[in-house]
Amino acid sequence: MPAATPPRRIRAFTFDVTGTLVSFVGRLGAHYADCARRCGVHIDPGHLAALEKGFQLAYNETHAAYPCFGGNCISTKDWWRTCVLRSFEVARELELNDGLKNDDAVPRLTEDQKERVFKRIYAQFGSHSTYSAFDDAIPFLRFAKRHGVITGIISNADERYGDSILPMLDIFPDFFIGSKDIGCAKPDRAIFDAAIAEASSCIFCNGDDSSRPIQPNEILHLGNDFEKDFIGARNAEMHAILLDRFGGDNYGDSFSEEGQQWSDAGAPVAKDLLDVIDMLARQNVEFGKPT
Is 12 helix (H, G, I), strand (E, B) or coil? Predict the structure, then answer.
């Protein structure tokens, strides 16, 4: 992997989604329990931890069986149906194994309840009700547009981010690259290479046929995972900055413990997207196509 050096010119920004442009709102277990309650299944607050652990185990299980949200094998909706319903089953198994009596554990869903609960959860997590945009996300995208910089998403999430969640949060990047469509996930180089090609396509789609294709070293990727975002982007010869948004007291000059680890490992680290602009300004980075 080439050493991380400051970019001279940025012609495209690419982003991770959750933790970079948007944050998850609320608690996953609470969302699942509320959706179940609205379908006639009572789950009291004492079961939320089991639901969340059940979800994580079910997610890993479903991902192992059907990587990249099923790729070309099954639809995203069928992938999530398997994962969501398995989450309730695993949560119940965990509580029974911990000694809870049958009637005290997470309820077993009937066949009718399964479909109704799944549809409610799938709809809720495909909307903006469980996500919010960070305050700096839209201003940063406007900054990019004013400076003629292409913006795109590189995500290991499914296509609902690009189709519904981000538009409902008023986030409109120029392109969306998801792991399901490409058949691989970050940090695999292929998903970054697909983004590089798409960024150049956006230039020509915008009617600018006088520019040369965008080169990897003219793209800055922004994310919050060292392996998936920093190592993945750098292996694709792109620039990368990690966002350290979630420190316990993340207002001074110090990083969170994880952010400090990223910095010590050689990654440029910013507190937020405004900090990214400051970093690039200090490095005299130019934006947009060469004149």
Answer: strand
Q: In terms of DSSP H, where are the helices of 128-272?
A: 137-146, 160, 166-168, 179-182, 189-205, 232-235, 257-264
Q: Which tokens belong to 240?
A: 């990368």
Cα–Cα dist 236/253, whole Å: 30
Question: Which residues are bridge partners to 241 per DSSP?
Answer: 222
Determine phi and psi for 148, rounding to 5 degrees: 70, 30
Q: Which domains does the chain have, with CATH numbers?
A: 9-21+134-287 (3.40.50.1000), 27-130 (1.10.150.720)
Tokens (6 digits) for 149: 């910089």
3-state SS assignment for residue 14: strand
pLDDT in tens, 154-199: 999 989 999 999 999 999 999 999 999 999 999 999 999 999 999 9
CA distances from 5 to 72, 113, 147, 234 (A): 38, 55, 22, 10
